[in-house]
Amino acid sequence: MSKKVGIEVSIAAAEAVGLARADVVAAYPITPQTHIVEHLADLVASGKLDAEYVAVESEHSAISASMGASAAGARTFTATASQGLALMHEILFAASSMRLPIVMAVANRAISAPINIWADHSDIMPQRDTGWVQLFAENGQEVVDLIFQAFKLAEDHRVLLPVMVNMDGFTLSHVIEPVSLLEQKEIDNFLPEIKPFRTLDPAAPRTMGPFGAQDVYTEIKQQQEHALIGAESVMEEIWGEFSNLFGRSYHPVETYKTKDADVILVTMGAVGETARTAVDEMREQGIKAGLATVRMWRPFPAKQIIKTLKNVKKVVVMDRILSFGSHGGPLACEIRSALYNQAKAPIVLNYVAGLGGREISRGTFKEMVAKAEYTDSQSANYELIDVRVS
Fold first, then answer.
1. pLDDT truncated to tens, each residue of the chain (390 aa)?
2. Choosing a second label site near 305 at 20 to 30 A (CA), which of 74, 209, 281, 346?
């Protein structure tokens, strides 16, 4: 039986990695993910987790060590944030292209300059085309559950791709929440031992990630794309199994009061819970608002987005990053693209908020909906919310 405890979300994430019986943890500290790898160090030192703990000299080394461990057949985990994720960037492509089932937690944090340690999505969005499966959590329970599910998805031979589990830095990673931690035997039943598809073995030498000239490169990239797109249906299978075993349901796009809505908010990450409360308050005021939370960012769940949004009048998309020069945030751009060929596409409005950890309140979402009420034409631009002009 699971037990519910009040626990810091970062510590809960580390406990989940321990319950998943990770074989190798490659660790380098960076705010605000440090508590994850610190607690994993405690678990290994105390003997509660039988794993190799590799304290590396940089985030670049952390992902490189993870690749080596995964290629040798180990269940492998690492974690990072912000500039650390940026330092990993070139290796992220290699990990996905070599089809290595690494799981990484990312405590999302702003990218400098200026130096900023608080949450937004400017670290993860530059990684969206690296070929990793990318998931977003709203709360601590989802962080824990998504880590279990991420290992199962990554190691499935139909997928064999690395997975990032994203949690907003500080506003989620450092809060204490009630989390149900599953028993070891329950996780062992859901997540069996890793069965590597292929491994590096001195007794049977092989090459991974060799030179690929023009005659093979396109075909390799096509296989990689097919695997990533196919990961959505495999994840839905895993979510169905998880729901049957533990009673908690997950979907690529989570919806709340959308069926009769005139306007639907779209968010990713921890702000979804704030938006849900704002929707309740707007409903009490007679405003027919709803909420769609994107759980799976890559592969992008376009069919689910279309199904959720195609019949609504207006869509209000909140991004937590300025995508410089694109006239809109990444999430809004994806949604506009998905809806482009729909006969009665809704008006899609894009608001950028919460940069560098600036507060996002219920009032923020109400302001977005209020602005949308007076907009009757499609707009390709975005608007910054809560810009302070001296």
1. 678 899 999 999 999 999 999 999 999 999 999 999 999 999 999 999 999 999 999 999 999 999 999 999 999 999 999 999 999 999 999 999 999 999 999 999 999 999 999 999 999 999 999 999 999 999 999 999 999 999 999 999 999 999 999 999 999 999 999 999 999 999 999 999 999 999 999 999 998 889 999 999 999 999 999 999 999 999 999 999 999 999 999 999 999 999 999 999 999 999 999 999 999 999 999 999 999 999 999 999 999 999 999 999 999 999 999 999 988 899 999 999 999 988 888 999 999 999 999 999 999 999 999 999 888 776 667 888 876 654
2. 281
Provide the sign of the torsion angle of the four alpha carbons 77, 142, 294, 223, taken in this order.
Answer: positive
Peptide bond into 114 cis (omega under 30): yes
Residues making up the chain, counted from first to last: 390
Domain borders along the chain are 3-246, 253-384
Nearest Cα neighbor of 301 from 376, 193, 382, 228 is: 228
Sign of the CA dihedral running 238, 147, 277, 389: negative
Which CATH topology does 253-384 take?
A: Rossmann fold (3.40.50)
User: Which secondary-structure segment (H or E) carries 34?
Assistant: helix 34-45
Question: pTM for the whole thing?
Answer: 0.96
Give the sign of the dihedral formed by CA 316, CA 304, CA 154, CA 64.
Answer: negative
Q: Tell me whether domains 3-246 and 253-384 share a fold.
A: yes
Per CATH, domain 3-246 is 3.40.50.970 = yes
* C-alpha–C-alpha distance, residues 264 and 291, integer Å: 5
Beginning with the edge strand found earlier in the chain, give each strand of the sheet holding 76-80 in spatial order: 52-55, 24-27, 76-80, 103-108, 163-168, 133-136, 296-298
Integer Cα distance of 241 and 109 in angstroms: 32
